[in-house]
Amino acid sequence: MSYIMVDVESDGPIPGDFSMVCFGAVVVEPELGQTFYGRLRPISEKWIPEALAVSGFTREEVQAFAEPVEVMSDFATWLKEHSQGQPMFISDNNGFDWQFINWYFHHFTGANPFGFSSTNLGSLYKGLVKDTFQNFKHLRRTKHTHDPVDDARGNAEALLTMKAEMGLKVRL
User: Fold this and answer.
1) Count of alpha carbons within 13 angstroms of residue 109, beta-carbon side
2) Residue from 13, 17, 97, 10 nearest 59 by CA
3) What is the C-alpha to C-alpha distance for residues 113 and 86, in angstroms, rounded to an integer?
4) What is the C-alpha to C-alpha distance for residues 167 and 128, in angstroms, rounded to an integer?
5) Tens digit of pLDDT for each residue in 29-68?
6) Greatest pairwise CA separation for the chain in angstroms
């Protein structure tokens, strides 16, 4: 099993009504050298300007991005090539990121290579330090920029630190 850290940017709060603009994924391993970046054309006419602005793209720019079926198929292929066995989805906010990745995989490819489970990095950290008021974000080395590959990399760095310095038992 390989842990795949994922980060999503969208133009609204839910898939289907709104669109996933882009996402990044990083295989969690010491080198953090295996990455995926997808930019997707909108699937809906609905969008929230403030939500889209977080991604740094304009509506005109995202209209020129690749078709979602192409991006999700490429991501599925990348997962097969870069994951040992069943990939494990993990993210900073899996309630948000998972809903988009899961919906897009099922809608555009018919299946989600991650299966039906995901892991929340923040909750994992809170359990590790036994304090629900704590936050892992100080463990990132890569600045949080809303570039989804940067953000996934920073979160992967935090997970690697939890393992190396805090005693988290996880097979990476």
Assistant:
1) 20
2) 10
3) 8
4) 9
5) 999 999 999 999 999 999 999 999 999 999 999 999 999 9
6) 47
Distance CA 170, CA 104 (A): 28
Give me the catalytic one of 82, 107, 144, 146.
146
- Give whole-number Cα distances, 63 to 39, 91, 152, in Å: 10, 26, 24
138 included as an active-site residue: no
Q: What is the pTM of this model?
A: 0.97
Q: Could you identify the residue written with the tokens 């099993």?
A: 1
Q: Where do runs of H (alpha helix) occur along the chain?
A: 49-55, 59-63, 68-82, 94-109, 121-129, 148-166
Domains and CATH numbers, the chain: 2-166 (3.30.420.10)
